Amino acid sequence: MRTVTLPSKSLLVNVRIVFTTGAMMDPADKPGLAHLTAAMLAGGGTKDLTYKQVVDAMFPMAVSLNSQTDEEMTVFSGTTHVDNLPAYYKLVRSMLLDPGWREDDFKRIKDDTINSLRVGLRGNNDEELGKEVLYSTLYRGTPYGHYSLGTISAIEKMTLDDLKQFYKQHYTQSNLILGLAGGYPAAFLDEVKKDFAALPANDATPVSAIKPEAIDHTRALIVEKNTRSVAYSLGFPIDVKRGDPDYPALLLMQSYLGPHRMSGGRLFQRIREIRGINYGDYAYIEYFPRGMFLMEPSPNLARRSQIFQIWIRPVEPPAAAFTLRLAFFELDKLIQNGIPPEDFNRTKEFLTKYVNVLTKTKNAELGYAIDSLYYGIPDYNSYIKNGIAKLTVEQVNAAIRRHLRADRIQIVAVAANAEQLKKQLVGAGPTPIEYNSAKPAEILAEDKLVEKLDLGLRPMDVQIVSVASVFE
Amino acid sequence: MMWKLLLVVLTAGAFVAANAQVKTFPFAYTQQDLPNGLRLVTIPTDSPNLVTIYIVVQTGSRNEVEPGKTGFAHLFEHMMFRGTAKYPPEKYNQILQRAGAASNAFTSDDLTAFYTTFSKEDLAQILAMEADRFETLKYTPENFKTETGAVLGEYNKNSSDPEEKLDEVLHDTAFDLHTYKHTTMGFLKDVQDMPNQYDYSLKFFDRYYRPEYTTIVVAGDVDPKKVRTLVDRYWGNWKRGNYHPDIPVEPAQNGPRENKIDWPSPTLPLIDIAFHGPAYSDSDKDWAALDALATLAFGRNSDLYEKLVVREQKVDSLFANMSQSVDPNLFEVEARIKKAEDLPYVRTQILETIKKFQDDLVPAEKLSAVQSRERYGFTMQLDNSQSVAAAVTRYVALRRTPDTIDKLYALYSKLTPEDIRAAARKFFTGNNRTIVTLTGPAAGGGK
User: Fold this and answer.
1) CATH (one of 3.30.1390.20, 3.30.470.10, 3.40.50.10490, 3.30.830.10) for A2-196
2) Is residue B291 part of a domain?
3) Residue A7 and which of B81, B224, B269, B338 are 20 to 30 A apart at CA?
4) Are B225 and B305 part of one and the same domain?
């Protein structure tokens, strides 16, 4: 059992209870088991209380216990006013240590999970669907090879015994990181530690290396569905995570190329600002789910393997092929020319200050501190500030050349008329774009290059699947 | 320059007991009006080194009074990033980057807000740059057209979500004249016509981007006196306007209405049952009573939630909401149903629950649990400069002062079971009701 504490004088107390286990530990025939187990603990009753009684007890305090399951981490988090800490903690303790495992709760949570996959993801959120299909495709054949929510057919077959077994095996003291922040009383940590010592002391979940298969040729997967526009996610695995020597350099690259939901990034400027093609375009070096709903990433999604990713928000179908070519064009330009020195200095300044925004709440600070423990790095703010301070533009551009590439990329598109899109993407175009207004000569000249940029896709590299088969 | 100064001193950190006299908004703040009509609200919070600014324009889709111009307030939010002679977009972005700022904007029925969180040493620079774009925004017809493409892109990214469509059709069905008839995003046909509306966009800016419509909320590691000096310096010469929109009054609905949406791809059926409700008020109990009723009748600890979601498991999402709006807007109950054949049953259950709240008095302890939850819920979100400023912004759009927060929560604490029943009887009438359902192909896609 490890602990991370950030005591303060706040009237709030943040609780983050992390188990270093997750979807990567799902048995091969039970994808989604880790997620369903966590969802059952956070959304079901306890040995003594029905779910309805838990809800009623939490209600007047405006508290909840939320779960998030990723490949390597499962976190239960909540915030309470310090007045209510004893009552809140009593519920949390029972939910995590004495779960009720009731069949009716299980049925409801299974339904919720299946509906999240079928309706929430496949039906209503083309962008998140594209991102998750990208991850599942890149990590095929590895323990990361399925979406953490699992597949519909596997969830339908799961039993309460499967969950209990997973709980027994993985919810152990060795996998536990207890996180507390805020104005909790001094004796509270000891009380929590004593309670959670009731968990089995089994060895920590063994960790295996994640080795995604090499991509030998750029390839595209088009998820076909009845939708207005075309959503893209594309990328490839990188051998860099928090704590690795090139992490600060690649984080700086990300902040230059496509900082999340910000207008200053290169991709945003070239695709949206100048050309008005879509709502936004961003780049990532770490897993960032639910980006359409969040301005900052959720903590406790630590992974030992990460990908470089470009997210192109939905594009009108006539501009779809051109926009993908434009993203490739910009990526290639970044690798060939590097970040210009003046942009480098500004981005450096940005990151040095922006880390304060990332950890602006105690809850986020606590989450980042837990991740830092996991990655074996100092606190995130000083890790980034120190790492960035030493960087030169040459070092960053060298890191970009070392880790990024503009070929051998996995593309995922969510689109109607998949065959038509496929035709536009294979070969060397041209797939020109039409604007509703005059554009500067420099842009029109660049467009001439972009429209016939060869994505390196042969017909055999493009696969089309029906949305109904995804995560089924 | 003399400013009207209102200094409200509260006990920072004081938390609310079930006592109407205690403040719910726990921060001491200053509220000041410039002679040109601009209002400044400054809220020092314990946020070391960080500052958040929200610039709130009391203009939203509610102000879109001309036909064919729906979605324009939102489009204008986008246009505000198209630069000035002094700060072209590139320079504007570079300054934000150097400040390590998180910056964005949003539009709703009643407001357009522009916000930035950054390190405190950049306060003067950011205030100067923001003042410049509010006073001297300048964009070409070409840039205008380009930005309309980004707005269409935003429509596109929303369009795969059936709840967006449900909202659009509900408001279009329930309203005849008032501008709440359309969503903030606007109708697709109007969004597609935006590229042709350059001249109108200039008129829109001239009307609404004026000091008398605008409030600056500054929260975080700040000294109110210094903020005031800076705002005076950079925003003091902004010229007051004289436009007052003639927003139509919605006539009383004269009979129940229904509408139905056929969603083109598999999804779970949705039902939205709505009634015309009151405008936001911090003095009249009706709005607060319906807001509490939404939770009492349809919240996670309500009897109906327990029945439909937890026990029978026919519904996977149930919630209600009394819209917090400047003008009278809708009280809505929305449910997502697992099997299409249960749609009529769920509809009946919701209507019977509404009837029950008209007939019976809610138990006092249930009301008291909701009152407690509202207070804790509001205060617990105030844990950083951005969420403090964001919470205030909502109320600035309604009453232009954080003062309304304490008035509202005082009103909540005085609510009685009789108030809840009286509001249910007054607003939940058949003539006042609109029901919209949405179903996918075949059996609705549920299983």
Assistant:
1) 3.30.830.10
2) yes
3) B224
4) no
The mean pLDDT values, 10 residues at a time, for chain A of 472 residues are 95 97 96 98 98 96 98 97 97 98 97 95 94 98 96 98 97 97 96 97 81 96 95 98 98 97 94 94 98 95 97 96 98 98 95 92 96 97 96 98 98 97 90 93 97 96 96 94
Q: What are the tens digits of pLDDT across the range B286-345?
A: 999 999 999 999 999 999 999 999 999 999 999 999 999 999 999 999 999 999 999 999
Query: d(Cα A289, Cα A148) in Å, to the nearest integer?
Result: 11
Q: Which residue of A has its CA nearest to B374?
A: A62
Average pLDDT value for residue range B258-270: 94
A83, with CB counted inside 10 A (0-12, 13-18, 19+), is middle
**DSSP alpha helix (H) spans, B209-284:** 224-235
| HSE-CB of B251 using CA atoms within 13 angstroms | 5
- The answer as to whether B5 is a domain residue is no
Q: Which residue of A lies nearest to B370 if distances are taken between CA atoms?
A: A60
Q: Which domain holds residue B306?
A: 257-439
**Dist. CA A96–CA B90, nearest whole Å:** 51
Place of tokens 């009684």: A53
Nearest chain B residue to A268, by CA? B150
DSSP B359-417: HSPPPHHHHHHHHHHHHHHHHHT-SSHHHHHHHHHHHHHHHSSTHHHHHHHHHHHH--H
> A123, B376: Cβ pair inside 8 Å?
no
Mean pLDDT confidence for B413-434: 97
**Cβ pair B99:A353 closer than 8 A:** yes
Residues of A in contact with B264 (CB under 8 A): 226
Q: For residue A283, which phi and psi values (nearest 5 degrees)?
A: -130, 150
- Taking CA atoms, A56 is separated from A50, B290, B306, in Å, by 10, 21, 10
Mutant choice from B94, B118, B265, B379 vs A, greatest count of A C-beta within 10 A: B265
**Residues B299, B216 share a domain:** no
Q: Which tokens hold the place of A459?
A: 């017909």
Chain A interface includes B158 (CB < 8 A): no
For residue B93 the two structure tokens come to 């972005």
**A111: chain B residues, CB-CB within 8 Å:** 313, 316, 338
Looking at residue A40, what is its pLDDT? 98
| Residue B145 lies inside a defined structural domain of this protein | yes
Q: Which fold has domain A219-469?
A: Cytochrome Bc1 Complex; Chain A, domain 1 (3.30.830)
Helix, coil or strand: residue B71? coil
Single-letter amino acid, residue B356: K
- How many CA atoms lie within 13 Å of B30's alpha carbon, on the beta-carbon side? 18
In this prediction, residue A428 carries a pLDDT of 75
- Give the C-alpha separation, B230 to B216, whole Å: 12
Residue of A nearest to B367 (CA): A60
Ramachandran quadrant class, B277 (left: phi over 0; alpha: psi -120 to 50; beta: rest): beta
Q: Is B161 on the interface with A (CB under 8 A)?
A: yes
Q: Are residues B197 and B285 in the same domain?
A: no
Angle between helices A51-58 and A85-97 (to 10 degrees): 160
For the stretch B137-187, pLDDT in tens is 999 999 999 999 889 988 888 888 899 999 999 999 999 999 999 999 999
Chain A residues near residue B383 by CB distance under 8 angstroms: 10, 12, 79, 361-363
Per CB-CB distance under 8 Å, the chain A contacts of B316 are 111-112, 115
Of B359, B378, B367, the closest CA to residue B292 belongs to: B367
The string of pLDDT tens digits covering residues B52-86 is: 999 999 999 999 999 999 999 999 999 999 999 99
CA distances from B174 to A361, B180, B425 (A): 40, 9, 19
